[in-house]
Each structure stands twice: as C-alpha cells, then as structure tokens.
TrEMBL record:
<feature type="active site" description="Charge relay system">
    <location>
        <position position="341"/>
    </location>
</feature>
<feature type="active site" description="Charge relay system">
    <location>
        <position position="376"/>
    </location>
</feature>
<protein>
    <recommendedName>
        <fullName>Acyl-CoA thioesterase</fullName>
    </recommendedName>
</protein>
<dbReference type="InterPro" id="IPR016662">
    <property type="entry name" value="Acyl-CoA_thioEstase_long-chain"/>
</dbReference>
<feature type="domain" description="Acyl-CoA thioester hydrolase/bile acid-CoA amino acid N-acetyltransferase">
    <location>
        <begin position="18"/>
        <end position="134"/>
    </location>
</feature>
<dbReference type="InterPro" id="IPR006862">
    <property type="entry name" value="Thio_Ohase/aa_AcTrfase"/>
</dbReference>
<dbReference type="GO" id="GO:0006637">
    <property type="term" value="P:acyl-CoA metabolic process"/>
</dbReference>
<dbReference type="GO" id="GO:0006631">
    <property type="term" value="P:fatty acid metabolic process"/>
</dbReference>
<dbReference type="Pfam" id="PF04775">
    <property type="entry name" value="Bile_Hydr_Trans"/>
</dbReference>
<dbReference type="InterPro" id="IPR029058">
    <property type="entry name" value="AB_hydrolase_fold"/>
</dbReference>
<dbReference type="GO" id="GO:0047617">
    <property type="term" value="F:fatty acyl-CoA hydrolase activity"/>
</dbReference>
<dbReference type="InterPro" id="IPR014940">
    <property type="entry name" value="BAAT_C"/>
</dbReference>
<feature type="domain" description="BAAT/Acyl-CoA thioester hydrolase C-terminal">
    <location>
        <begin position="203"/>
        <end position="415"/>
    </location>
</feature>
<comment type="similarity">
    <text>Belongs to the C/M/P thioester hydrolase family.</text>
</comment>
<dbReference type="Pfam" id="PF08840">
    <property type="entry name" value="BAAT_C"/>
</dbReference>
<dbReference type="InterPro" id="IPR042490">
    <property type="entry name" value="Thio_Ohase/BAAT_N"/>
</dbReference>
<feature type="active site" description="Charge relay system">
    <location>
        <position position="232"/>
    </location>
</feature>
Amino acid sequence: MEPGWSIGHAQNRTDGALEMGIRQLTPGQKITLEATAQDDLGQVWRSFGMYRADDQGTVDTAGTAPEEGTYDGIDANGLLWSMRPDGSAPGYFMKSGSAPHAVTFRLSTDGVLLGERIVDLHFVSGDVRISEITKPFAGKYFCPEASERGPLPAVLVLGGSAGGLLWSEQMAALLSAHGFAALALAYFDWQGRLGLPNQLAEVPLEVVDRAMRWLQAQPGIDAARTGVMGLSKGSELALLYASLYPQAIRAVVGYSPASHVFEGISMAPAGRRSSWTYEGRPLPYLPYPGGPKSWTPAELAQLRKLHEQALNTSTDEELEAARIPVEAMRAPALLITGAHDETWPAAEMAEGVLQRLKKCGYRWEVRHEHFPEAGHLIDIPNLPVTAEHGVPAKAAAAAAREAWQTVLSFFHKNLA
C-alpha cells in the first residue's frame, strides 16, 4: 500500500514553507525523498533526503532532519534549494519567468518506488492581473485585485546585468502576491529583443522615469506610495533614480548595491562609455583599468578586482563626479549585501553610502543588512542555489529567505 502524502496546497508559493508529510509508514522505516526540477535551459536539477519515520510512522520534512542528503538539519524547503544540476559542475538555475516552478517528488524505500507527486510552486496569486508591456517601455505588470484598504502601493523592479526581465519578473510577481502592485522593467537585453539596447551602456534614466510615471498612473494605484528595488547593476540604477527623481520614490531597496556609476558593459566595446545617461548626457563614471573589456572568461573571473581597481585608482575628483548623489534621495533605503561578493565590493560600497548619508544628516531610515556567509547573488527564495566561491549553499539559501522577509517588512512599513 502506498503511504499517505500531504504536500503543499493549491496556492503554495515559491517563497513560502513547503508543507510535506508522509504517513502510514512503519515506525523507524527509512525512506528516501528525491526532488527534481527542470530549468528553462532543459537542465535537470536534483536533490534528495533520507529520513526515518517516527513512532507514529510519519515523516514531516518541516520537523525532521535527513540522516543523509543534499542538505542537513531541519529545513522545510531543504529539498528545494539544495538541488544540483545533473552531470555537470554547479551552475545557475535558469528560471526566467513567473510561470509556476514545477517540482517532482519521488518516495522510495530500499530502492522500491512507493509513489510520486508533482507540486507547482507559484510566484503569483490567483487574484493578480498580469500585463505584458511593450510600449512605451518593455516590462511586465502584476496588479492584485482592488483592495478594501483603498489604492495599492507599488514597486518598480530592476534586474541586473543579465538583462531582460531575469530576476525582476519573479520578484515583481512575488511582491504582487503580498499586496503590492509591481512592475518589472527591462531596460536592456543582450539579444536586443523588443527593440531594447543590446548592451548595458548609456541607458537613459528617462526610461525608468517613464515606467514609474506609467505605474503611478495605473487605476487603483496610490502614486504617493511608490518604491524602487534593484539587483546589482539594477541597484546602481535604482539608487541613481531615487537620487535624481526624489519626488517619485518613497522607499528604495538595493540588493548588492553600488555607490558609484561604473563604466558600461558591452560584449563588443567600441570605446569607453558610461552605463547611464541623464537629460541626454552620459553620467560621469569610473572606468575599468586596462581599457574597454570584451568580458572574456578571464575578465569575468576578475570582476571584483576590476571594480576595486576602478575605485582605488581613480582620483578624488573622479570619484566624486561618479558618486551616486544619495543625499538627494527623500526616502528610506534598505541595502542588502554578502561578504563573499565576487562581482564588486557591495558591502564596502553600502557602508560608504551609509557614512555619506550620516554625515549629511539624512533624516530618513537607512539600513544595511549584511550576510557574512552570502555572496553577490542573494536570489529568489527557495529556488536552487547558485554556487558562488566561498559561499555555503545552506547560508546562501538562508540569506535569500531572510533578505526577502526583510524586504517585505521594509516595504510594508514604508509603503503599505
């Protein structure tokens, strides 16, 4: 007889706790649970745990640690974040959209399959309206049904140098599941889709402002309660936007942020260019040492060093010109960093932002949430963890979950 299963529920969300219990086992029986999922590139990812049934013949993954497996300790979502790709070195779980994350669970004992279940983990709640935007900008809009509390707060979400809507779409979807209207903006795309620039160079700040104005003008939105959130280069852009358009923003979140504008990124550089423009003019920037980069594997492996050299070899005048004028913001800010950031010194730059604001008597709340065991990519909670040098997977997963809960609390406090 197949044991009884209890796995999640119809509205189970990606950022929630996975509810899984196995009953009708023999007390002390040893079982194996294997989880598999496929990313957008067709790569299969896999995790497992070996558990022992309690005196009642049950295994509850929220309260039982595996005796062996891809994770250790008690963690309801351990089978989700500890997945690793089949037959290859650890990589990045490519999940580019907000469609449900399908996970297959297989239950076995002594090599005999006892049952199988498929669980869809959702980014979006059923009451959220989704709109794809192609003009006057490219993005995806997630709007919950009208709230009894009145107009909704809204957040503009900016992804990083991966381009398109990677990260931003999923985060916007999760924000909408928590009561925020959210717009994921694509400000460039490496393939040049939707008419977007195919390089992260001289992107106009006005693109962000156009998207924000559109968001604020949507029915049921409280234009006085809008925020912006970005990751990596997207956080550089978010802080810039909040500094140059302070009247538009009431809360700012930067995952792995920058304190300065850096040189633009192009796969076939014709010369040095800023990452951003404002009012038709390139913003001053810190150049990478050694001339324009083609971003070979060797150069990508030296990303942090390149950024540190750009900061350390620039003159005081160049640093001040390229510095993001954060003191012009008029909103609370939350900065999230990891100590093992191999892309750029985000923690040090975040501290520089805090010191600058403290020095000028900034009157809004500014927080720096630092994770000593995390890296640059503090990612979508509970998706398979991206392997970063020096970062334990368990610590990366915990940082992703804690950071996300901190972000939600921050936005609820300052926008909701």
